[in-house]
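Proteins fold reproducibly. Consider a sample protein:
=====
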Amino acid sequence: MRDVAIIGVGQTKVGEHWDTSLRHLALEPLQAAMADAGVTRADALYVGNMLSGELTGQEHLGALVADFAGLRGIETFKIEAACGSGAAALRVGYVAVAGGLADIVVVVGVEKMPDTLGPDTTTALAMAADGDYEAAQGVSFVAINALLMR
């Protein structure tokens, strides 16, 4: 396995970005990280996201963001692992470089929750719970976290 380093970082200001699409939210930190690293190309792009399909009707974020960023002809896909989607995407990027499958990868996490109503967001978040034993009983994800904090 090869050594791996994070050579550039970027971040969107945390807040409610009502007039900003998912692709725009992902583009800002992606471009900032590439500029910080001093690179203009990447071998792969991994997008960590949990709720784009449920809350915005937009899936296939890897290809969408790559195309919007001008990163064409590279491996790219969305990685979903509930609340750990960003970390899972980072791990996939790490493994790609460490294993010699890529030299430069870009990893970006993006989520857009404020555009939906509270109950819709709560329902979407509940998909991270066990559908057979928790959600089927009417237990929300918020309630599960409250029980864990008792």
Q: What stands out?
A: Residues 22-37 form the longest helix (16 residues). The longest strand covers residues 44-48.
